[in-house]
Design brief:
This protein has 279 residues and is mostly helical. The protein has 14 helices and no strands. Helix 3 packs across helix 13 and helix 12 packs antiparallel against helix 13. It is globular, with a radius of gyration of 24 Å.
Length: 279
């Protein structure tokens, strides 16, 4: 019996050591990036220290002001907030319609929508660019936002439909008897009950839009409209030899979304388990 306990503890210890090593491997580059962003140029090349001797916070001020990183940051906040809002609003309406309403071609339309998940984004660059150009939306915030929204709708509809399919119909029928409209049922009953799935979509789409680069590279040329990842390319080209400033810019681009993810990561597994994995 003692042997089996020892074997179990040994296996657990080895697992924790392995996971700890993986965590250190993943976290060390982030730590090095933040540490380097607080150093001076001379210190980076002269001493390989993990921590800066003097914490040079002026790198962040310079990155925000001199390198226009503040504008890139605010643009990303705008694209992320507005894009996620419309993805959730439109997909929840569509998912509720697919789950509860009957109309011709419903199943075919739903499967065609889901099939778009098989198409990689680079595969639609040419038709997307031509479409936006014909609509006069190239190098506009609206054009980029529409791409972000359309890119996130298919999976969001798929996830929410699975959740709405599992909601008890008795609650909706009772609301109809009480005189609630179909939209009222959606807004007052379905959406509040779908909060775990919605929280999952908020996190996943926030990560996707914040970190997106290729669409912004294709659509935008005006620096004033660029999100933070697209701005990093311009930033790197301008300050490629100023490593502390470059690391400060990378930290500004990385840390906010990492904090949001760490604060809300529990909702991802919870929401997917409550939605798409049902039925």
């Amino acid at each position: 019996m003692n042997f089996f306990k020892f074997q179990k503890r040994l296996k657990s210890g080895v697992t924790h050591i392995a996971l700890g090593a993986v965590a250190i491997t993943c976290l060390f580059p982030v730590f090095w990036m933040i540490s380097s962003s607080l150093k001076t140029q001379d210190l980076i090349f002269s001493k390989m220290t993990l921590l800066p001797e003097v914490w040079n916070w002026s790198n962040y001020v310079t990155a925000f002001v001199k390198a226009d990183f503040g504008a890139y940051f605010l643009n990303s906040v705008f694209y992320t907030v507005v894009g996620v809002f419309f993805i959730i609003f439109i997909s929840s309406l569509a998912a509720y319609a697919f789950a509860r309403l009957e109309f011709p071609g419903k199943n075919i339309l739903f499967y065609l929508l889901i099939a778009t998940l098989l198409i990689p984004i680079p595969g639609v660059f040419v038709p997307l660019y031509l479409l936006l150009k014909s609509l006069g939306l190239i190098d506009t915030r609206l054009g980029l936002l529409l791409c972000y929204i359309s890119n996130g709708l298919a999976f969001a509809i798929f996830l929410l439909k699975g959740f709405f399919d599992d909601l008890p119909r008795e609650v909706e029928e009772a609301a109809l008897i009480d005189g609630c409209s179909r939209f009222g049922i959606y807004w007052r009953i379905a959406v509040p009950l779908a909060k775990p799935a919605i929280a999952t979509l908020v996190i996943m789409n926030s990560l996707t839009i914040w970190n997106e680069f290729l669409l912004a590279l294709v659509i935008l040329q005006d620096k004033a409209k660029m999100p933070i990842q697209r701005g990093l390319m311009v930033f790197q080209g301008t300050f490629i030899t100023d490593y502390p400033l470059l690391m400060a810019g990378l930290t500004i681009a990385t840390i906010p979304i990492v904090i949001v993810y760490l604060m809300m990561q529990k909702h991802i597994v919870k929401g997917i388990a409550a939605g798409a994995l049902k039925g």
